[in-house]
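Batch job 17 of 40 flagged for manual review because the log was empty.
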Amino acid sequence: MGRMIASSSNSLVPVLLAAAALAGLGPGAGAEWRAEAGADETAVRPTAALAMEDLVAWCIVPFDSRKRTPEERIGMLEQLGFTRYAYDWRTEHLADTARELRLAEDRGIDVTAVWLWIDGEGDRPGQLREDNERVLAAVAEAGISTQFWLGFNENFFEGLSGDEKVARGAEMVGYLSDRAAETGSRVALYNHGGWFGEPENQIRIIEALPDHDVGIVYNFHHGHEQIDRFDTLVEKMKPYLWVVNLNGMRPEGPKILPFGTGTHERAMLQRVLDAGFKGPFGVLGHVDDADVKVILEGNLKGLGVHRAAAATR
């Protein structure tokens, strides 16, 4: 397992506040982050419910002002204590993808998932865009089995009725599931807004594929419009839920907030835990113009506060 280092001391508060500003947070959020950053100078200490080995670093490849190399990125994960991450990418990263995935596995960092983005202009059953083919080839070259997290552009379903969208989605997901199986991998449906981002529609697609092993990865940061019915959604998703990616949540936004600085994320996480889901949980980077290590540290800090509060309930 990777080594865990102590969380930031008060000397890191200005850096955390700067990251909050880059994330688009206002003065109020900065004050909350200041309170979080100075509240506890000890290491993030996991409980049985949220053990470090069940936390998955996510959105850390394109979202990093330091533009780390694969070696630097894996080293950062080791420093922070992560033993798992999910690999997101842009075209410029694909030349190094296979090498990074092998390096992660060699260093004991589990590649929990790899991102795929399905676009109606270039992806269809039987044919994928070049970038997506390169991703599948990189996973095969690295010799790993993983999850492919599938996001869909709304243009994939353009002009279709609800039933037609389910049928078209099921056809594509079935094809991708078969392609993933070539490396012993599986696919999970990733809410990213629009029709496909509604869990009820994802469940309809999964139910149309009884012979395929398909799951759901639920993202807080794409679920602001679902907060009011989240309790109901958890019960519906529970049989298919593989991963939950965490984020600070306020109904009015912004989209990305450090965990612990919103108004709803603690209750949402507790609802997931009470439903019997024990992880894994994704910890977001997802800030374009900030050092992703600082962002991850801020989210780990917030999760530490949640764990302390849960332990004293």
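Reviewer: the log was empty due to a logging misconfiguration, but the result itself is present. The two ends are 30 Å apart (CA to CA). Unflagging and moving on to job 18.
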